[in-house]
């Protein structure tokens, strides 16, 4: 059993069920990545795990307790979320946004304490944003903006981080920057990280555990070695993949791929 | 990469030297605004059809003598009027700020989104069918009307494919306001209550009496305190629902409370001054420009600046063409419309 357990959940939007009867377990102190084609319910699963979406049946358990019954502010002390489409109000500075990450730890009307400043400056530092801290967010590049949101989630100081496509909009170097940072957070501080990635090779290289989804159901879960195989990629993405080994992680990567024309 | 010890020493140093400039600006605006407000209130009381010196104003307020006519004028006509103006300004401004924060819609304003027209329509119905209804009930109906206006606008707005965009809501608001306005005028003509409604429509605080203020005050004070209490949550909501939930906010509860507060504020303001728009648009944007995005400061500053704007507008309304009064609504629209066009030109970007 992991730190987060998804037990037979059904969930979706309005009357449309996206996920039906899905059970999965997120291991503690590991990086778990959810992969799958567009519209397969990856983000929906992430939203259910992070209590943004209510479940129609079944439940998500955080340390054995149903997450929707826990005080939401208490959950926020343990779990931070980076949504896929976060956009900041105009005029907000980097420092201000990152400082909002401290909200769950503040009491009453809330002014920043010394402890809060430490977390904020640490988050700005590890995301390389210190020099931009007084700039308005709309004046930053897409990649920098993404880092600001990650910094806010980090300032929250939680053991669990949930990120929906944290590397989207970033160039190659910045993508790696973020993933290395997440890896460091896991290794040095034992954080649990759950994310959605589109890049299979990044997912394979940095994950301890992978969850492959298709049409709202779980196709396969396991280590990158178990998940990243030709038959699995065919099942999940309908691609004919040519596999190789990542020289950095020794995990399988997809060198290139073909579509299965006839099966489409 | 620097070592951990170096990093933490650096962080320590930054923590020590961090300066927060925006709260200082907010405090300046707050106290400067209060001072300016007191001065304008004093000026507004002393200026009018009968000229009264400031010294007389002082004695009328603090050493009232019922035998003196100027004292009577000040006490019974000018004071309730100017206090009414201040109250109404604060109400519209805070309602606008809350709506903008909760909906992330920069064009949110009780006038633009049909709340004011809804309240005014309900009041017209009251005048027509229940003449002489006590003010207490009038205000209740005004709240209801504001809710009705908002419900229709949001209903129409969300019917359209592609969901609620700021621009769509404003269009729906304009259409619904026009319809409700036309209906109110029809009622006024049919029931021959046009005289009662006409000036009040264009917006004016001239008829404000102590009793109106007394009935409204508790509602408004409670709503304002509520607004300040949820102000921090509004800041987080303005980052988007998902982020707010992630930070431990009960988004639905906050939105319900926020909406109730908005209805009370807009409803009571309309019951005094009529369907004056744009105050809720101008004031929060101005304060945001100066003091930043923290609603813990935006709300209190909006209270002060909103009051100041309407007190000044009322003063100007009496000075432009004395002894006649120019409708306040028209004066505020003079500033409000260009401001709206400026915001709309930027494409109604999300807040």
TrEMBL record, chain A:
Gene3D superfamilies in the cross-refs: P-loop containing nucleotide triphosphate hydrolases (3.40.50.300)
Signal sequence interval, chain numbering: none
Keywords recorded for this protein, A-Z: ATP-binding, Cell membrane, Ion transport, Iron, Iron transport, Membrane, Nucleotide-binding, Transport
MF GO annotations: ATP binding; ATP hydrolysis activity
GO cellular component term of the entry, any: plasma membrane
UniProt domain ABC transporter: residue ranges: 4-240
Cellular compartments annotated: Cell membrane
Entry keyword Transport: yes
GO annotation terms (biological process): iron ion transport
Main location class: membrane
Membrane topology listed for this record: Peripheral membrane protein
Pfam family of the protein (one): ABC_tran
Protein name: Iron ABC transporter ATP-binding protein
From TrEMBL, chain B:
Gene3D superfamilies (alphabetical): ABC transporter involved in vitamin B12 uptake, BtuC
SUPFAM superfamilies per the UniProt record, alphabetical: ABC transporter involved in vitamin B12 uptake, BtuC
One Gene Ontology molecular-function label: transmembrane transporter activity
GO CC, any one term: plasma membrane
Keywords in alphabetical order: Cell membrane, Membrane, Transmembrane, Transmembrane helix, Transport
Transmembrane feature ranges: 24-49, 82-99, 111-130, 136-157, 169-191, 211-230, 256-283, 295-316, 328-345
Membrane topology type: Multi-pass membrane protein
InterPro entries: ABC_BtuC-like, ABC_transptr_permease_BtuC
UniProt subcellular location: Cell membrane
Main localization (coarse): membrane
Pfam families in the cross-refs: FecCD
GO BP of this protein: siderophore-iron import into cell
Family, similarity comment: Belongs to the binding-protein-dependent transport system permease family. FecCD subfamily.
Protein name as catalogued: Ferrichrome ABC transporter permease
Lineage of the organism: Bacteria, Bacillati, Bacillota, Bacilli, Bacillales
């Amino acid at each position: 059993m992991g730190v987060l357990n998804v037990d037979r959940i059904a969930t979706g939007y309005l009357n449309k069920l996206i996920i039906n009867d899905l059970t999965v377990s997120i291991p503690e102190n590991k990086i778990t990545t959810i992969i799958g084609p567009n519209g397969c319910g990856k983000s929906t699963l992430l939203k259910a795990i992070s209590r943004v979406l209510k479940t129609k049946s079944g439940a998500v358990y955080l340390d054995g307790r149903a997450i929707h019954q826990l005080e939401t502010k208490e959950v926020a002390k343990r779990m931070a979320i980076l949504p896929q489409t976060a956009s900041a109000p105009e005029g907000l500075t980097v420092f201000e946004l990152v400082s909002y990450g401290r909200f769950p730890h503040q009491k009453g009307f809330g002014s920043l304490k010394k402890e809060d400043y430490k977390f904020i400056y640490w988050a700005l530092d590890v995301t390389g944003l210190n020099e931009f801290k007084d700039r308005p967010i709309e004046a930053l590049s897409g990649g920098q903006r993404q880092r600001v949101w990650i910094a806010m989630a980090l300032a929250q100081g939680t053991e669990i981080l949930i990120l929906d496509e944290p590397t989207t909009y970033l160039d190659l170097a910045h993508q790696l920057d973020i993933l290395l940072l997440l890896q460091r957070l896991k290794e040095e501080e034992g954080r649990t990280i759950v994310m959605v990635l589109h890049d299979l090779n990044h997912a394979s290289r940095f994950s301890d555990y992978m969850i492959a989804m298709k049409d709202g159901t779980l196709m396969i879960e396991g280590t990158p070695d178990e998940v990243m195989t030709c038959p699995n990629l065919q099942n999940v993405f309908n691609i004919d993949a040519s596999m190789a080994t990542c020289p950095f992680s020794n995990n399988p990567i997809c060198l290139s791929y073909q579509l299965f024309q006839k099966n489409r | 990469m620097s070592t951990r010890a170096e990093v933490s020493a650096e962080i320590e140093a930054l923590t020590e030297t961090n300066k927060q400039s925006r709260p200082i600006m907010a405090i300046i605006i707050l106290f400067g605004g209060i001072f300016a407000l007191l001065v304008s209130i004093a000026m507004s009381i002393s200026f009018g059809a009968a000229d009264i010196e400031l010294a007389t104003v002082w004695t009328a307020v603090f050493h009232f003598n019922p035998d003196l006519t100027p004292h009577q004028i000040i006490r019974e006509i000018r004071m309730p009027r100017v206090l009414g103006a201040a109250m109404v300004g604060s109400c519209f401004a805070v309602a606008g700020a809350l709506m903008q924060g909760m909906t992330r819609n920069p064009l949110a304003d009780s006038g633009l989104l049909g709340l004011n027209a809804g309240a005014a329509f309900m009041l017209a119905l009251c005048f027509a069918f229940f003449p002489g209804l006590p003010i207490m009930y009038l205000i209740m109906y005004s709240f209801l009307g504001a809710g009705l206006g908002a419900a229709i606008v949001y209903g129409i707005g969300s019917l359209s494919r592609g969901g609620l965009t700021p621009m769509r809501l404003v269009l729906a608001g304009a259409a619904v306001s026009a319809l409700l306005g036309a209906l109110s005028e029809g009622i006024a003509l049919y029931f021959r209550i046009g005289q009662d409604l006409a000036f009040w429509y264009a917006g004016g605080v001239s008829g404000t009496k102590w009793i109106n203020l007394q009935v409204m005050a508790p509602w408004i004070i409670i709503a304002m305190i509520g607004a300040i209490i949820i102000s921090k949550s509004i800041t987080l909501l303005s980052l988007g629902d998902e982020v707010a939930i992630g930070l431990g906010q009960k988004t639905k509860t906050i939105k319900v409370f926020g909406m109730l507060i908005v209805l009370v504020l807009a409803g009571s303001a309309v019951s005094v001054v009529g369907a004056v728009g744009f105050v809720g648009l101008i004031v929060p944007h101005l304060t945001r420009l100066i003091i930043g995005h923290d609603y813990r400061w935006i709300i209190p500053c909006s209270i002060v600046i909103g009051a100041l704007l309407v007190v000044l507008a009322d003063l100007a309304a009496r000075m432009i063409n004395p002894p006649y009064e120019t409708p306040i609504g028209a004066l505020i629209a003079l500033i409000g419309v260009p401001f709206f066009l400026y915001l709309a030109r930027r494409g109604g970007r999300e807040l």
